[in-house]
Amino acid sequence: MIKTGIYGLMRSFLWLIPAEAADAYPSEIWGLVIAVLATATLFIGTTQALGQDESKRLLAFSSIGQVGYILLPLGACLALIKPGRTEDAVLLLATIGFSASLFHTLNHGLFKSLLFLNAGSLLYATETQDLNQMGGLIKYLPATAVTALIGAFSIAGVPMFNGFASKWSIFITTILGSRYAPYLAVCAVLAMLTSVLTLALFLKFFGTSFLSRVSRRVAERAATGHIAEVGWSMLAPQIVLAALCMTLGLAPHLGFQLIHRALASSQQGLGVVLAKLPPLPAAGFTGIEGPAGLAVLAPLVVALVFGALLLLAAGISLLGGALRRSAEPWLCGYAVESDQMRYGARNLYREVVRYLPWVGRTPTGSGGNGAVRPAESLPQRADTHSSHLGA
Amino acid sequence: MSAHVALKQIAERFTPVIQRTDVPDEGRLFLYVEPQALREMCRYIFRDLDARYVVGIGLDDRPVSGKFLVAHDFAFDKEHVLCSIMTYLTGNPPRVDSISDLVPAANWSEREFRDLVGIEPVGHPYPKRLILPDGWPDGVHPLRRDYPWDAVPPDYDENRTFDFDNPPDGCVVVPFGPFHPTLDEPAHFRLYVDGEVVRGCEYRGFMVHRAIEKLGDSVLTYNEIPMAAERICGICGCVHNVAYAQAVEQAAALTVPPRARYIRTIMLEIERLHSHLLWVGLGCHVLGFDTLFMQSFRIREPIMWIAEKISGNRKTYALCVIGGVRWNITPALRSELMGVLATLEKEWRAVADAVAGDRNIQKRTRGVGVADATLVKEAGLIGPMARAAGVKIDARRDHPYAAYGDVEFSVITQQGGDVWARLLVRTLEVFESIKIIRQCLDHLPEGPLQAPIQDELPVGRFGLSSVEAPRGEAHHFVITGENNRPRRWRVRAPTYQNLQGVPAMIKDQQIADMTISLASIDPCFSCTDRMEIVDLRSGAHRVYSQEELLKLARGGTRTP
To answer: Of the residues A302, B285, B493, B520, which has the maximum number of CB atoms within 10 A of its CB?
Structure first.
């Protein structure tokens, strides 16, 4: 549903204008407006998501940010196809921008659907959306955890996953395009910073639900047999979506070719201008080959290098007889571990949210505590904690 | 004003309920009151007369009077009076009205006599176990006279865990200590953390409580206790050594020879010098400023050497006996000490100037761990804690002892009450100590080191003594007794009060500031705990049980 607006914007700004009237069309102004609004959206949406503690609310807020990522290259594209500008290099950038926009739309459709399905599995297994009460679920939902990890890596733009391919083209368009529209450099820097925040956000989503110590709620449900990996009918769509995320991440040219084919079938409007250029030359192994001077994206090579290095590290570890040790958390030698000591979702990134009050408070208002607290939260107690030492 | 004036002020309102008064000299006042008037009188003294709360004492006096005794000590700092409000309790179990809601500084003292003597403070806002270990059975009170000094209750359960409070809604518990909470000594804080902000805490300490007071009234003798008292603290041991001796001397009305008083002053100031230099070093180490840590320790070392030349030890000087001192300062030692002070003053001036202009230290310490004048009053904070908040109290000036009445020095105060102010107070007090030692050396009187004591010390007399330790006022309360030992000896180390201010100091500040905030009170929890034995050859390790440790600790020492 959130992509409908994108479709409308693309149609209105690129196809409603007849190619002959392009000279009279102030596309660079519209490009400025869209790029700036998109940058604000991606930053605000993501930082608001940082303050959420509920799985689906967190994902919904992050969707706002991702739509910002989709609109930023569209704005850049409009800014670059300024009337009268016919150099191939600029038009190529504009095409990459438009492709990035569509590609990220496609990718977001994939990984966000996957993540929402993951959140659904979590809800099914724990009967709560509150991340504070989850923890250690990788033990009980291993397949869901792997797909969720792929989804998180994809949305955070980790190399070899599809989000990286589209974000990479977004950064190419904005950084190289800043030569023609300088404000795009600022947008690019903010988008990169926000990309880090997205990674932080999904560390929170994945870390507090699947990793960390097993929470009291999970332990209780496990003891009564109420927690188990979800059934195949729920798991299969997640696996398919995760596989698509990885396919497009390792072979992004498939996505670009798809988009170019759509663009090539365009009959009118500025789309014709964009489609004039030949499609990006693609090669199976190196992914995308840009024209001379442009960065080359070769995710398969990256994957091979990473894999080789991992094997090397494992080999060294094996040859050296490295010991693997695990230990209980160190609680300073006296305290007994309890659920009260789990550092839950509520406590993460509070300082970031505290220093950015202008991005919008969440409904409860208490520094981003997120929505309604479940009934079985910690018991209320008399206010002795600050006074019983005589102070 | 003197003790008589203070007595007159109190008597104006409370004559009908005062059972007995005792004014041994102008600086001491003992009042016995009816139990039902205790609350109101303490409130009047604390609030209306603006006295400082010092400590509360519980005593099992059944062998003598058949009753229990509770005493609350107050200090009139401006008027130079130490005062003890006492009340006898009948009834079993003994109960006394709690004053902690009116005098918050009494919180720990009341919990302590509840634990150790079994006197129930009725209406206490937080009557939770404070001193006794986790496994100690309820209803057994080791400081009662009928409890043997070396007994372990048969139902001691070393697997019992302490019942901690739940954190407030939305807070995570972060355990802090007992292993190395800032410094090497054990204390456990459960910090209630909301995000990265501390919202409160629960404290569990006294892990190495060694029952020295119990030893003092059942095993040791008058002249053995100073050596045990010195071992209360590894840094300011001499303070307890002198404070105990003075309390007994005051109770027995002994006059200490002038030369002994001057030597006590010199040793106490030598101790303050090394302690303040140690703290500035450690405080900087906690902040990650290791250069100054090393400089402080380098400058400090000659003080340790001169202390060893005088007493035979770098620390633990074993200075006092009742009625005098054991070590003399010879002319050779005197000139050497003068030389050490000259070097110290020069080198420390350079450090003080560097610290005063250091923006990095200020950024880490300004506005951190704030204890303002209100908290100082309510929690009874003392020493550099109080002086850093602009509260000008110093037992050396307010309740002069040893030779402090004969020397001139300034009481250093700062404003703000934060860690930075405390750092400045301690840095500058070093120069005052140097000044005091020089005056004492210049006017060191001739004469004997010890007063001759012909008779046994009188029985049933009360003694109060306050000595300004580097960390604040150390207070000793002594009741003389039979068998050449006191009937009750109560020690209140300065950290006992200062630690009670910590929860308010760390509230609503970043958890990262916890370490320096705690370090800034210059805490003294004292050392050693259980140990783990690792057999290096087999790699096996095991933890000693309570019982085995007791056997190890007591094997080869005195047996009853």
So the answer is: B520
Residues of chain B with Cβ-Cβ distance to A340 below 8 Å are 166-167, 172-173
Q: Which is nearest to A360 in space by CA: A33, A51, A35? A: A51
Q: Do domains B1-141 and B212-456+494-519 have the same CATH topology?
A: no
* Per-residue pLDDT tens over the stretch B269-292: 999 999 999 999 999 999 999 999
Q: How far is CA B172 from CA A327, B217, B334, in A?
A: 21, 44, 57
Phi and psi based region of residue B189 (left: phi greater than 0; alpha: psi -120 to 50; beta: remaining): beta
Select the residue of B125, B167, B504 nearest A340 (Cβ to Cβ).
Answer: B167
> Complex ipTM, two decimals?
0.79
Q: Could you tell me where the DSSP H helices lie in B288-330?
A: 290-311
Is the whole-model pTM more than 0.90? no
Per residue in B412-471, pLDDT (tens digit) is: 999 999 999 999 999 999 999 999 999 999 999 999 999 999 888 999 999 999 999 999
Q: Which residues contact B72 (CB under 8 A, 6 or more apart)?
A: B38, B42, B53, B55, B56, B57, B84, B85, B99, B103, B106, B109
Contact A235, A134 (CB under 8 A): no
Architecture in CATH for domain B212-456+494-519: Orthogonal Bundle (1.10)
Cβ under 8 Å to A: B residues 480-539: 499-505, 507
Q: Which residues contact A266 (CB under 8 A, 6 or more apart)?
A: A15, A272, A274, A275
Each domain of chain B, given as residue ranges in start order, spans: 1-141, 212-456+494-519
**Interval A161-183 mean pLDDT:** 91
> Partners of B201 in the beta sheet?
B191
